[in-house]
Specification:
The structure is a single chain. By secondary structure, this protein is of the alpha/beta class. The chain has 18 helices and 15 strands. The strands form 4 sheets. A 7-stranded mixed β-sheet has the order 1-4-5-15-10-11-14, with helices on both faces. Strands 8-7-6-9 form a 4-stranded parallel β-sheet, with helices on both faces. Strands 2-3 form a two-stranded antiparallel sheet. The structure holds pyridoxal-5'-phosphate. The site of pyridoxal-5'-phosphate (PLP) has 20 residues, from α6, α12 and α16.
């Protein structure tokens, strides 16, 4: 028999509970603050915005394990469990003694991990009799996830899509429209927040921060409508822990345990998903695994931002989050990894980084595409430009292992495939892409505009 390449679980092995790291953290995140009173937010404050079931998960720092509802498990079965794969061909190409594994979240019908939380969010909305939801989308993955999830649960969806992606990634728009969503390019004239930005800067290509402002505004002004968010928040990370919980069982099947776990980082959800279930064994002292969150060099909130209270959106509609940020008005360069163009980071991951329980690294755009192409040529899967950042970091770890001669077990999350991102690869192959450097002065200038809140 040859070597085992894929570690597969069966439907009955799908985890029945999500892992709530909030209950386990040595230092819990500081509270989220009401932007007006600067007092800690209460659950009631969030009810107008989010389904109650999700608000309770957001605030729950007591229960380590949260039951996954039966209806959500049923939908997970369409594509879960996701395979864990040993990247033998990539190892060979790198001539490394390291063992490289990846969790393949690209097998979901939308091509990324985002459906894991979209299904849960649509379920809790449906439970509470909500008929309409709004959201924003960057590269389009979150919008497609919500479009499919709301279609499955019978809810209407309006999506504000960052303008540059709306233009660069028309196929994701078609996918959302196929699943019945109403898609609007952001900034748009349909909201006060959008009109203000367009008036001040008519050529603005949009950002996640702006699109969030628009989606929140529409949700707040529409009856029986809630807003949904695809990353950053605690409940989103909670739902994504299904990734790491499956991977934990699969690494056991492989007879190994990761020395380093890697995820690309936009707002933190897929990184949280692959990491948190393994991190819990560091908390108990059983393990000393390293965890690396990988961001683009052009949007370096973890490696070069500051830890401070900031808004989650551009217009300042959201509560204040204690997080690593580049400032809510930071306009990142138009790199193709649209899902990583966000100014801030989730509060849990931010606290973990502050406490040195995880690490952060940044990758230049050209290095991410080089890694993506090598991965496609060796493992056969076109990675999403976002996921290519995790691959680049995994390759760096494998190269370091070669230099030191130490065997090392590397696990990264393949958050999605790049079959709808081929325009970006086209530009890379044609030599039309570049790196973006950001000076300390630019970062300082942006961050210094942040009001010192506490
Ligand atoms: C959205 C997205 C990301 C970034 O979001 P996180 O919340 O940080 O995971 C990464 N990879 C893919 C494929 C995505 O769609």
């Amino acid at each position: 028999m040859g070597k085992i390449k894929k570690f597969l679980l069966t439907e009955k092995d799908i985890p029945k509970k999500w892992y709530n790291i909030l209950a386990d953290m040595p230092n819990k995140p500081m509270p989220i603050l009401h932007p007006g009173t600067k007092q800690p937010i209460k659950a009631e404050d969030l009810y107008p915005l989010f389904a109650k079931g999700l608000v309770h998960q957001e605030m729950n720092d007591k229960d380590v394990w949260i039951d996954i509802p039966e209806e959500v498990l049923e939908k997970y079965k369409i594509y879960r469990p996701a395979p864990l794969v040993r990247a033998y061909s990539l190892e060979k190409a790198l001539d490394t003694p390291a063992h490289i594994y990846f969790k393949n979240e690209s097998v979901s019908p939308i091509g990324s991990h985002k459906l894991n939380t979209a299904l849960a969010q649509a379920y809790y909305c449906k439970q509470e009799g909500i008929t309409n939801v709004t959201t924003e989308t960057g590269a389009g993955q979150w919008g497609t996830a919500m479009a499919l999830a709301t279609k499955m649960f019978g809810i209407e969806l309006a999506v504000y899509m960052v303008k540059i992606s709306y233009e660069q990634k028309p196929y994701r728009r078609s996918l959302m429209q196929t699943w019945g969503a109403h898609v609007v390019a952001s900034p748009s004239m349909s909201t006060k927040a959008g009109r203000k930005i367009i008036t001040e800067n008519p050529n603005y290509q949009g950002s996640l921060g702006t699109a969030i402002s628009e989606a929140i505004e529409l949700a707040m002004s529409t009856p029986n409508c809630k807003y949904t968010l695809g990353s950053v928040l605690n409940h989103v990370s909670l739902h994504q822990t299904i990734i790491g919980l499956e991977a934990e069982k699969q690494m056991e099947m492989a007879g190994e345990y990761p020395d380093v776990v890697i995820g690309c980082f936009g707002g933190g959800s897929n990184f949280a998903g692959i990491s948190f279930p393994f991190l819990r064994h560091n908390f108990t002292g059983e393990r000393k695994t390293r965890f690396v969150a990988v961001e683009p060099s052009s949007c370096p909130k973890l490696t070069r931002g500051i830890f401070q209270y900031d808004f989650g959106d551009e217009a300042g509609y959201t509560p204040l989050f204690p997080m690593f940020t580049l400032g809510h008005n930071f306009a990142p360069a138009h790199i193709h990894a649209g899902g990583l163009r966000y100014h801030g980071a989730g509060t849990i991951v931010s606290q973990l980084l502050k406490d040195n329980l995880i690490e952060a690294a940044s990758i230049q755009q050209l290095d991410s595409f080089e890694a993506g192409v090598l991965f496609a040529q060796t493992e056969g899967i076109m990675p999403a430009p976002e996921s290519a950042h995790a691959i680049a970091a995994a390759i760096n770890e494998a190269k370091a292992a070669k230099e030191s001669g130490e065997p090392k077990v590397i696990l990264f999350n393949l958050s999605g495939h790049g079959m709808v991102d081929m325009a970006a690869y086209d530009q890379y192959l044609a030599g039309d892409l570049s790196n973006y450097s950001l000076s300390d002065e630019e970062i300082k200038a942006n961050v210094s505009q942040l009001e010192q809140i506490v």
